[in-house]
Amino acid sequence: MSEYQLRSGNPADNSRLPVCDIGVLQHSEKFYRLECISSIEAIEAIEADWRKLEQSDDEPFTYFQSYNWCYDWCVKQYKNNPGHGIAQAKIYALWCDARLLMLWPMMAKRSYFGIKVLTFLTEPLGQYGNILVDRTQVPLELGPQIWKLICRDAEVDAITINQYPSTSSLDELLGDVGIAEQSSKAISFLDLSQFESWDEHHKSLSASARKQRNRRRNKLAKAGVVDYEVIPGGSPRYARLVDKALQMKQIWLQQTGRRADILSKRCTASFLTGLSGKAGSNERPAGSFAHALTLNGEPIAIEIGMVEGDHYYSYLGAFDWKWRDYSPGKIQIELAQKWAKEAGLRTFDFLGDPSEYKSQWTNSTRSLNSRSVPRSLLGWLYCVVWKAYLRGAVRTAYHHLGSERRKLLLKLLGLGARQNTATPKAGSLLRHSKTGIDAKILCAAGYAIAELFIL
């Protein structure tokens, strides 16, 4: 992830300025104004309008467009990186009669190759792309006009609209613009509203699944005193658990030959530890939470999640690698789902990253769409050649290498962290040229390098 900074405006009062008027749109007898907000002061000035729009928009999967998430991220990025930002917030706001009707949080950033791209604000930390919109006040016919004005304002090589839910308001607004990417990604979630209680959900599982979960819990119980706690954001204990979860995740990534540079950034830890949450005995939880499965008082599995309305987002899960044979991560997931049901939540969302294990914990899915819109020749190469074709093929080849070969490859490229465990020698992995391993290694190397330099 690149380092970011917002342009700082200097408004003379507490109005919605400074903003950039993009254009005026008309439908029937109504006039609408589209603005682009690019300063922290302007974001702060529309807080009440932003929150009101959140409450009026009953569409799911919009947490990463909420005021708390976007504003906290912007503030952390601005304060952590003064004078070094290479991205600019571009939050598109649609107004009618001084009422905010739509928000599309975006940002323009430049890759190391010089490709300037407009993409969702907070990406890749934000897991879903979406918009906030009052669907009763914004006619669908305005979609093409809004899109045209955004394209004109963006001044980028490409617009990438990654991982937005199908049949969402954004899906309707975009229609068939640009290049649709072929992707099997989908939101996996447990619809808790199908069950009157947690016991009813447990009874709905197959007999083998119930036995397997019981065996896991019993095995861990024999190792010591097991406890479970849920800590709302804003406390020192929450911050420590976030830091611990990030450390655990880094070890898991190293051991499995994977990379997620965003998780090692100082600004990521600062952002996640700074999120707030609240939980009262007589009210539904809201905001950010840290779940901890502890053994003899020490966390062995941690989950960072967020609650918006009756929707829980399972954002980041990690476990202590040395306890992996006890499946602490799976035990923690079960306890987190039980907590969500007992707290009155209806949806337990595993987000869109594809993983086989999710099918064991969910009962519903919703597909995710991605589209790319080239705006220059360089953007066309990025969207058509790299994003729509090469990236997926190279990523697949990389993951098919297996964990040991991935670790070796990252080490050869100087991208992997040093390991305490033994790594197979290069010759033992590369000598079987007839099996095509050499080609896979070279292909995967291209992917690892591209991850460093391409958006």
Count helical runs: 14
How far is the first residue's CA from the last residue's CA?
A: 9 Å
Which residue ranges are poorly predicted, with pLDDT under 50 across at least 5 consecutive positions? 1-18, 417-437, 447-455
Number of strands: 16
Calculate the mean pLDDT score and round it: 84
What is the gyration radius calculated from CA atoms?
23 Å
Secondary-structure-based class equals alpha+beta
Q: Give the ordered list of helices and strands.
A: EEHHHEEEEHEHEEHHEHHEEEEHEEHHHH
In which range does the helix fraction lie? 25-40%
Beta fraction of the residues?
A: 25-35%
Give a quick account of the main beta sheet: strands, pairing sense, barrel closure.
Answer: 16 strands, mixed
Shape: globular
Features:
single chain; 455 residues; alpha+beta; 14 helices; globular; disordered C terminus
Summarize the SSE layout with pairings.
Elements: E1 20-27, E2 30-37, H1 40-45, H2 47-56, H3 67-80, E3 87-96, E4 99-110, E5 116-120, E6 132-133, H4 143-154, E7 158-165, H5 169-174, E8 179-180, E9 186-191, H6 198-204, H7 207-221, E10 226-232, H8 236-256, H9 266-273, E11 277-280, E12 283-295, E13 298-308, E14 311-319, H10 328-342, E15 347-349, E16 364-374, H11 377-399, H12 403-412, H13 426-430, H14 437-453
Parallel strand pairs: 5-7, 14-15
Antiparallel strand pairs: 1-2, 2-3, 3-4, 4-5, 4-6, 7-16, 8-16, 9-15, 9-16, 10-12, 11-12, 12-13, 13-14
Helix pairs in contact: 7-10, 11-14, 12-14
